[in-house]
Amino acid sequence: MVQKAKILLVDDRPENLLALEAILSALDQTLVRASSGEEALKALLTDDFAVILLDVQMPGMDGFETAAHIKRRERTRDIPIIFLTAINHGPHHTFRGYAAGAVDYISKPFDPWVLRAKVSVFVELYMKNCQLREQAALLRLQLEGGGKAAGADAKEPAGLLAELSARLAAVEEQAEALSKQLDDDSADAAAVATAAHLERKLTGLRRALDALEPGTGSTSPVSSQN
Hints:
The chain is of the alpha/beta class. It has a domain at 6-122: Response regulator (Rossmann fold), CATH 3.40.50. Helix content is 60%, strand content 11%. It contains seven helices and five strands; from the N terminus they run E-H-E-H-E-H-E-H-E-H-H-H. It has helices spanning 14-24, 37-46, 63-72, 91-99, 112-152, 155-185, 189-211; strands at residues 6-10, 30-34, 51-55, 81-85, 104-107. Strands 2-1-3-4-5 form a five-stranded parallel beta sheet, with helices on both faces. Strand 3, helix 3 and strand 4 (81-85) form a beta-alpha-beta unit. It is elongated, with a radius of gyration of 21 Å. This is Two-component system response regulator. Residues 6-123 form the Response regulatory domain.
């Protein structure tokens, strides 16, 4: 069973949160509410999120300040943030949103279809990254326990390598299809860059897996570089 991604919705007005839930419910992911910047930061301490929808105008800690805190934390700094605002003070205001770390800046009222499409891209990228981490973890287990497994059952390492290769191939195919979709739809530069980063990580994992094939003589560990 595939685990659902979590989407953080941050707005001080309950009716706005309800509207966002209605728009995004079709994505069939886990929607988490936060009614303030402080509540959002608390939720980010324990849960991983695919994307954050963050209202700009909030009493106390506004969206810009909340985003600054998110980007300062190592655990959360790479989570995409989409700013939502009911006001538009021109290019300077928009620039402030991007400078705070937002991947997009949308003025209300917004097109529900456009918002849902933007969020779905980041959810899909998040899911692909989760699959990639799982494959990397399996590969590390193989590297660490290869000698022991070979002594117990010579067929086990080869079988595990074949399973890893098949799983990785499935992720590679999905990532390639997603990249083509982003190109076709003229998607946001941030989404395209994230997809390219995912493909680079997939390439590195494929090389490491190929190096474990019989006859290569390589047992070097998987690089953790991003």
